[in-house]
Design goal:
The chain has three domains: 3-84, Alpha-Beta Plaits (2-Layer Sandwich), CATH 3.30.70; 108-206 and 423-544, NAD(P)-binding Rossmann-like Domain (Rossmann fold, 3-Layer(aba) Sandwich); 219-231 and 239-419, FAD/NAD(P)-binding domain, CATH 3.50.50. The protein is 29% helix and 21% strand. The chain has 18 helices and 23 strands. Helix 4 (117-127) packs across helix 15 (465-483). The relative contact order is 0.14. Its EC number is 1.18.1.2. GO terms for molecular function: ferredoxin-NADP+ reductase activity; iron-sulfur cluster binding; metal ion binding. Keywords: FAD, Flavoprotein, Iron, Iron-sulfur, Metal-binding, NADP, Oxidoreductase. Its cofactor is FAD.
C-alpha cells in the first residue's frame, strides 16, 4: 500500500520530514520545491507507514486502497513526476539541518504585522529560539489566519485544516496576539521599533491587478479579491455589489476573466447547488444571496491555450470530478492535442457529452480569448466584448497571445476580474510600483525592519510556500541579531500598555477564541461547521465578553460564552 497526494497541498513540507524513507519530493532545497503544484509520493519507495498522513496539516495524504473513483487520477499524477524526476540519488531519509543557535543571548523581542500564514510561520520559526523572549503578532482584523480564512474556497474544507497548525503556534507561551490593532496611524513603525528588536511586515497583497480595458469600472465589474472576500466573510467586503438575482442580471451569466485557481474557485462557488454550500463555512449573508441567485452559467476566459492555463492540475481534477455542475471546454480542438497533463484532462472533459435537458448550472472553460471591452447601460455591466487570440511562440519558447479582429459579445451582468493580486504601499516603508512589493534583500528592508510573504516576493506560491519564505526572513533576522541591532527601550509589558492606550478596543488570543467559539456554536445550530460573524461591531462585542469558567473536578474546566 502506497500513499497518494490527492489535492493541491499546502507545500509546508511537514510530510517530507516525517517520511522515514524519503519518498516525498521535491523536498526543501531541491529544484522545484515551492514552485511545483504539489509534492509527490514515489509509490515504488513508499512503505505505507502513514507518517506523512499524520504530519500533513490539510489531510492530503490518502492510501491508494482508500482512494475514491474521483481521486484515481492522482495516482498517475504522482507517478508522472517520478517518470520525469526519478530522484535515484536521494538519501535514505530526509536531511534536517541542525537547529541554529544565536551567539548573543538576548532576550530579543519581535513584532510581526499580519496574522496570515506568512506571519504565523514567521512567529513559529522565531519561537524555536530560546533567546527570543516574545513574538507579538498584530493584525488590523479581529480574526487571524489571513487568506486561509478569507481566501480559501469554502468548499475546500480540507485546505482549511492548516488552521490546526496555526492554533498550535498561537498556543505557545511566548506568543501574543494584538488583533483589531492596525499599524500605521495610531500605532506606528517608530512606536514598534522603540519596543522590539525587529519588526516584520507580513501584510500580503490585498489589491487586484487591473485589466486596463474600457468599462472596467462599471457596476457589476468586481475584482476576484473582493468577491472572494465577500463570500468568505471579510468585514471589508460585506456590502459588495454582486448582481446575482435575475432582476440585476437578466442574462443569467457571469464571466470570470483569468483562469488561475482563484478563477476556478469563483466559478464553482457561483454554480454549485446551495445544498452543497450550506455544508461549508461560506458567509451567511452571501449564502442567502447565492440561494436566490439567477446565475446559470459562468464563462471562464483564458487568453492562452489549455497547456498554458494558470490553474493547477489538482484543481482541474477536482473540477472535473464535480457531479453537480456541468463543465464544458470551449476552444479549437487543435489546441487540445498536447501531451501535457492539462491538455489531456481538458481533452477528456471536452469529449464528455452534456445532456441538453440538464438542469445543472454550467462552467464553460474558454481558451485563446481575451476581453477587450466591458459593455454597459446606465452605468452597469451588460456584457463583455471578447477577441479571439492567435497563439505565437516567441524566440524564448514562451507562448504569447495576440488579439485578432475576430470578436464576439457575451451577455453578462457580472464580470469578475481574476488576473492576480497586487500589493499596496505600506506606511513608512519603501515600495516598488513595478513589482508591487517592498524592496528587500532576503527579507531585510533595513536592519531591524523586514518583510515576509507576498509583500516580500509577490503573489506567488501556496500556503506552505510561506514557511520556506519565513525561514529565509528569520535567518536574516538572526544574522542581524548576532551582528548587533540597537537595544530598544521598551519591554513586552510596555508594548501591551502602549496598545491598550492607543487602541483600547483591540483584543488578544482570548478574544479571537471567543469569536471562534461563537461562530462554531451558531454554525452547529444550523448544521454547518461555522457561521462566520462578519460585522465588525458584533466581533468587537463578542471578543470583549469575558468567558464564564465552569470548573468540574480539580483540573477540568469548560469555557462558555453565556452565563
Amino acid at each position: 500500500m502506497a500513499y497518494v497526494v490527492t489535492q493541491s497541498c499546502c507545500a509546508d513540507a511537514s510530510c517530507v520530514v516525517a517520511c522515514p524513507v524519503n519518498c516525498i519530493h521535491p523536498a526543501p532545497g531541491e529544484p522545484g520545491f515551492g514552485t511545483t503544484e504539489m509534492v509527490y509520493v514515489d509509490a515504488t519507495a513508499c512503505v505505507g507507514c502513514g507518517a506523512c498522513a499524520t504530519a500533513c496539516p490539510v489531510g492530503a495524504m490518502v492510501p491508494d486502497a482508500a482512494l475514491t473513483t474521483k481521486q484515481l487520477p492522482f495516482i498517475d499524477l504522482n507517478a508522472a513526476y517520478y517518470d520525469a524526476f526519478p530522484h535515484a540519488d536521494r538519501t535514505p531519509v530526509a536531511l534536517v539541518p541542525q537547529q541554529r543557535r544565536l551567539t548573543r543571548t538576548g532576550p530579543f523581542r519581535v513584532a510581526v504585522i499580519g496574522a496570515g500564514p506568512a506571519g504565523l510561520y514567521t512567529a513559529d520559526e522565531l519561537l524555536k529560539h530560546p533567546e527570543v523572549e516574545g513574538v507579538d503578532v498584530y493584525d488590523r482584523l479581529r480574526t487571524p489566519y489571513g487568506l486561509v480564512r478569507h481566501g480559501v474556497a469554502p468548499d475546500h474544507a480540507s485546505t482549511k485544516l492548516v488552521t490546526r497548525l496555526f492554533e498550535a503556534i498561537e498556543r505557545q507561551p511566548r506568543f501574543r496576539y494584538f488583533l483589531g490593532a492596525p499599524v500605521g496611524d495610531e500605532l506606528t513603525l517608530a512606536d514598534l521599533r522603540g519596543t522590539y528588536h525587529a519588526v516584520v511586515y507580513a501584510v500580503g497583497a490585498s489589491a487586484d491587478r487591473a485589466l486596463g480595458i474600457p468599462g472596467e469600472d462599471l457596476a457589476g465589474s468586481v475584482p476576484a479579491t473582493a468577491l472572494v472576500g465577500w463570500y468568505n466573510g471579510h468585514p471589508d467586503q460585506q456590502d459588495l455589489d454582486v448582481p446575482l438575482a435575475a432582476a440585476s442580471n437578466s442574462s443569467g451569466r457571469a464571466v470570470v476573466v483569468g483562469n488561475g485557481n482563484v478563477a476556478l474557485d469563483v466559478a464553482r462557488i457561483l454554480t454549485r447547488p446551495v445544498e452543497v454550500l450550506e455544508r461549508t463555512d461560506l458567509a451567511p449573508a452571501a449564502l442567502e444571496r447565492l440561494r436566490d441567485s439567477g446565475v446559470r452559467e459562468v464563462v471562464v476566459l483564458g487568453r492562452r491555450g489549455p497547456a498554458q492555463a494558470a490553474f493547477t492540475v489538482p484543481e482541474l481534477i477536482g473540477l472535473a470530478a464535480l457531479d453537480d455542475v456541468d463543465v464544458v471546454v470551449d476552444c479549437d480542438p487543435a489546441l487540445l492535442d498536447g501531451e501535457d497533463q492539462r491538455s489531456q484532462l481538458l481533452r477528456d472533459l471536452a469529449a464528455r457529452t452534456v445532456d441538453p435537458a440538464s438542469t445543472r448550472r454550467r462552467i464553460v472553460l474558454s481558451f485563446a480569448v481575451s476581453p477587450v471591452e466591458l459593455l454597459g447601460e446606465d452605468g452597469r455591466v451588460t456584457g463583455v466584448r471578447v477577441a479571439r487570440n492567435r497563439l505565437v511562440v516567441g524566440d524564448d519558447g514562451a507562448v504569447r497571445a495576440e488579439a485578432t479582429d475576430d470578436t464576439f459579445d457575451l451577455d453578462a451582468g457580472l464580470v469578475v476580474r481574476s488576473v492576480g493580486h497586487r500589493g499596496l504601499p505600506v506606511a513608512d516603508l519603501p515600495f516598488d510600483e513595478r513589482t508591487a512589493t517592498v524592496p528587500n534583500h532576503q527579507g531585510r528592508v533595513e536592519p531591524g525592519v523586514y518583510v515576509v510573504g507576498w509583500i516580500k516576493r509577490g503573489p506567488v506560491g501556496f500556503i506552505g510556500t510561506n514557511k520556506t519564505d519565513a525561514q529565509e526572513t528569520v535567518e536574516t533576522i538572526l544574522d542581524d541579531l548576532d551582528a548587533g541591532l540597537p537595544e530598544p527601550a521598551g519591554t513586552l509589558a510596555s508594548a501591551a500598555a502602549l496598545v491598550r492606550d492607543r487602541l483600547p478596543e483591540s483584543t488578544d488570543l482570548g478574544g479571537w477564541q471567543r469569536i471562534d467559539a461563537a461562530e462554531r456554536e451558531q454554525g452547529a445550530a444550523l448544521g454547518r461547521p461555522r457561521a462566520k460573524i462578519t460585522d465588525p461591531d458584533a466581533q468587537r462585542a463578542i471578543a470583549a465578553v469575558p468567558p464564564v469558567v465552569r470548573r468540574r473536578g480539580i483540573l477540568r474546566r469548560t469555557v462558555s460564552l453565556t452565563p
